[in-house]
Structures are given as C-alpha cells and as structure tokens.
Design a protein that fits this description.
The structure is a homodimer.
Chain A lengths: L3 E4 L3 E7 L2 E8 L1 H10 L4 E8 L4 H9 L3 E8 L4 E7 L6 E7 L19 E4 L4 H10 L5 E5 L2 H6 L1 H8 L4 E5 H7 L5 H10 L4 E5 L5 E5 L2 E5 L13 H16 L4 H18 L13 H15 L2
Parallel strand pairs in A: 1-4, 1-8, 2-6, 4-5, 8-9, 9-10, 10-11
Antiparallel strand pairs in A: 2-3, 6-7, 11-12, 12-13
Helix pairs in contact in A: 1-8, 3-5, 6-7, 8-9, 9-10
C-alpha cells in the first residue's frame, strides 16, 4: 500500500559546479523527493516521462521501493534541465529548460494512491495542486511546495492552495516574496494565518525553521566540507521529512522536529555528490549516525 | 579586579536602516563588546576617545560596570562612523569613517589589566594585537577578531597573531577570504591547524558555529520579527560569549557551547533597537528567558 504520494518531475539533468559536471543524468523534484522518502516508507510518485528516459533509472527507483504506478509515459521528450552553480552554491543558474512534456501532463492518480494519508504537492501549477488535493480521499497531512514562478504568475491560486494544506514548505526568499516582507519570521506568521498548522522554511545551507503557533524549531545545515552539487537538496529534504512522518504516522510537533532533522540528514548527504550518486548508496546506519551527529551539533 | 580586558573602539555612529535612523549616537566595537560582557563580569576597556565624546555616555558605561581605566582621552575628534543598511541587513554600507583619532592611538594597558585571565583583541591593526598579547602577563584564554581590511593589508601579521591566541573569531566571509576557500568548514579547519584550540565563525542572522578538534557546535540566529539595527551584533555577541566564559572561569568545550548561546542571546536583543538602546535596558531575567528559548529552538 502506498501511504505517501508525491507529485513531482522526473528529469534528465546536465549540471556543472566548481567541483565537476554530469550530463543527462537522472534528476527532477519527484525523483529526489521519492528517494529521500524511500529510506523510511514506500512512496508513490505521480509524474510524466518520455520514452527516452533510461529504463535503468526507473529500475533503480523501483529497487529503492518507489512505486511508479503514477508515472505516465509520454511521446514527448523527457524534461531536461541544464544548469550551473558558481562558488556560492546557494543559487542554480538555469541555462536551458526543455519542458514541453508538461504540455502533456494530465493528473492521473492511481486508485490505490487516493487513500494515502500523506501527500506532498511538489512545486507545479497551483491549479494542479488544488485538483490533486480535491481528488485525494481524506489525507491526514498534506504539504505544499511552490516557487517564485507561480508566486508571480498565480499568487491568488497559490494562496488558495496554501489554505487547503496542513503544512507550507517554501524557501526563505519565496516566502518573503509571497507575503511581501523582508522578514521571514513575519512571513511565516502570515502564512500560518492563512490556514496551515505548520510552516517550514528552507534556508539552504543555513538549515530550516519549523513554525507553528508559538513554536519555532531550527535545524542548522550540516557543516559539510565537501559540497559537490546542491541539486535536489530541497526535494530530498522534503522527502526525508515526510518519509519519516509517514513511517511513524505521527504529526505531533515533537515528531515533526525529528522529521526536520531526518530531512536535513538526507539533504546533507545528497549534496556530497552529483545527481543521486550519494543517495543511491546510502543506508540506514549512515542515516542514524548523522542524525546523532545533528544532536551533538546543537546540544548545549 | 578586571578579569576580562578588551581592545576596541568607542565611536559616535550615524546609522540609517529601513526602520529608522540615529545620529551621532554611542557606538564602537569596544562599547558593544563591553556592554555585552557587562551582564556577566566587570570588563575593562582599552580604547581612545576625543574630548567631544558625551560624558553621559561614559557615565552610562561605568554604571553598567565597565571599567574605563584603559580609555585614553585625545585632543582629536572621536571616531565617527556613518553608515546605512538596506533591507538585507547583513551588510553595512559605510558612507563615511572619520578615524583620525587612531593616529593618536598608543597601547596603554593599565597595570591591573595586565593580570586579566581573559583577553579580547578586537578588530584593529594585527601588530597592535600582537603587542597587546605580549604585554599581558599570562592570559588563560585569548580571543582574536579581525576583518577583511587587515586580511588584505597584513595577512601574514594576522596569521602570526592567530598563532598566538586560544580562539579565532571571524565572520564567514572573512575566514573564507583569509584561507582562500569557498567552504567555511575547510577554512575553520585550516585556522585550527594554525594554533588556536577553538574557531568561532559568525554567520550573521544565520547564527554561529564553534569548531574544535572533532567538534562542531551550531547556534542559530534567534528568529527575530523586529530587526531594527544590526550594528554591534558581532561585538555584543563576542562580549556575551567572553563575559560568560570569564564569569564561570571555565574554558571546557561544554561551557564554551553555553557561552556561544549567551553571546547569541545578547546579540539578538541588541538588534531589536538602535545603538545600545536595548542593551542598556536589558536585565538578567530577559537573558535567562531567551537562553531557555534557545534550548527549545533547537531541541529534538
């Protein structure tokens, strides 16, 4: 049974950073999210890929326990993203995005996904996010991601979608832009007033902050000496977070704090190598070890 | 007896931020450091001011328990700094710096300062920092601050001074510049290899990280909704840090972790109002309360 469903992209990424490059390698928000979650639960992915997408990559995802029943095949080319990072690796510079496959995107939710308790609405057109929420039977905990593109094009729809979910997940610049304030704490409070019980703000290498009524919880970024490629950090973070929540089936604040740390553990490993190279080799012992390191990192 | 001595400036600041402005108000690294430390111990300041510096300001510092025996009066004008901040308040833009008083700076260490166990070498010419260290009798724990100006002009002297102290305190951009690496974790490790047992990296609103052999300790910035003026954040942080260390007379790693949090508490309060307006009203209860909030902020 699929207990956690996520909506996201499957892509072929060409990425260059000061520490190397990869060409047409597996990527996409849905891939990073699903892999992040796969360490804790069996996530179901809703996406679309072209017939040019390597079978070996799909096999790998299935071997990791990702359910691909919700992935539709299209005659168009798989999403391709070409980008580079400079020494300040907080920002990806997009060279080219070939996204014609999304013209072909129809929301196809397999029947046995519709009972899932946990739902992640990856960054996509907010109207599709709303439609998906409406078609899920009775999710216990839903999380919405978005980005500046949608905030600028369809702000009122983004706000409507936010009003329908249990948690909003945005990065710091996005939430400040959405609520038109330079202060992310004020922005998070405004977001809470729109309906979600929790707001989780991603601060890239600086960590993440969870907000709820009267609650702040801060997790730092893990102090990495080797950051080869930050691609997928935010999505694998979300996957680790929601994978832990789905596994434990517990949405108390105390458990969400742990989930934020598990998300940070996954995201920190992800950045240590290109594409999914690190995540595909990661095991439970690695995850537990770094989780304990996070405790030592903040304990006083 | 003065147990903690610091070398720093006393200035008249004119500062504008998106939230207001102040003109010719009390400022300077030595003032912020001393006030931050004054909540925990009686710090001794080494500095120089002009005769134009308001008596009321000196009286205020003395009332807060700051020893001014090491402050020399000069016939030149007090240091004046004129700056503004934009919405991203991590960076101060200097409009004008009137620093002729430093032509008149001679290192005058009162005899009873020379026994102090704790020494803070504020950001100044590294040759003066070295001279001061040589003239202290036998400090138990010395901390060195610096800045990009000295790193660029006198790198080898800065490195020499670093080799003489117990802890290096720099902000993230500075330590990356000093050790010519984009990664602050690598930079901190390189700094440790130069001699200091501890390296403390300030990350502005993103907090601070303490490094020692095999040790990382991270404290986030306190999530403030109101940041009126970040001037003095780094110096009041250092003052709170070293004030706590001097008060407890304990330089174990466990105690330094607590000191980093106390420094963060002081710095977060400092940013809530212009100049020293918040610090001068702060009491022990405020400090204890926010220290506990820091525990809740990171606990999982």
């Amino acid at each position: 049974m699929v207990n956690l469903v996520n909506l996201g992209s499957v892509a072929l990424d060409t990425v260059k950073t000061p520490f190397g490059e990869v060409k047409e390698t597996i990527g996409g928000s849905g891939v990073y999210f699903s892999l992040g979650a796969s360490f804790f639960t069996k996530p179901g992915l809703i996406s679309v890929v072209g017939r040019d997408f390597p079978k070996t990559c799909l096999n790998l995802l299935e071997k990791k326990g990702v359910c691909l029943k919700g992935v539709r095949f299209s005659e168009k080319k798989t999403l391709r993203w070409h980008a580079y990072y400079e020494y300040d690796m907080n920002e990806a510079h997009t060279v080219k995005l070939e996204a014609e496959i999304f013209e072909d995107f129809g929301l196809d939710i397999p029947e046995d996904y519709r009972d899932a308790k946990y739902v992640f609405l990856g960054n996509i057109d907010p109207e599709i996010q709303i439609e998906m929420l409406e078609r899920m039977k009775n999710p216990k905990f839903s999380v919405l991601d978005s980005m500046n593109y949608w905030i600028e094009k369809k702000r009122s729809k983004v706000l409507k979608a936010i009003g329908m979910v249990d948690m909003l997940l945005l990065n710091e610049a996005e939430i400040r832009e959405l609520f038109k304030t330079p202060n992310f704490v004020s922005a998070a409070k405004k977001a809470l007033s729109k309906g979600p019980k929790f707001v989780l703000v991603k601060k890239g290498e600086h960590g993440a902050v969870l907000f709820s009524d009267g609650v702040y919880f801060f997790t730092p970024g893990y102090p990495l000496e080797t950051v080869k490629d930050p691609t997928g950090a935010g999505d694998s973070f979300a996957g680790g977070f929601l994978g832990w929540v789905a596994k434990t089936d517990n949405i108390s604040e105390v458990n969400l704090r742990k989930a934020v740390v598990y998300g940070s553990v996954i995201a920190s490993y992800n950045a240590e190598d290109f594409s999914i190279n690190k995540l595909k080799k990661l095991n439970e012992t690695d995850i537990k070890r770094r989780y304990q390191e996070f405790k030592k990192l903040v304990y006083f």
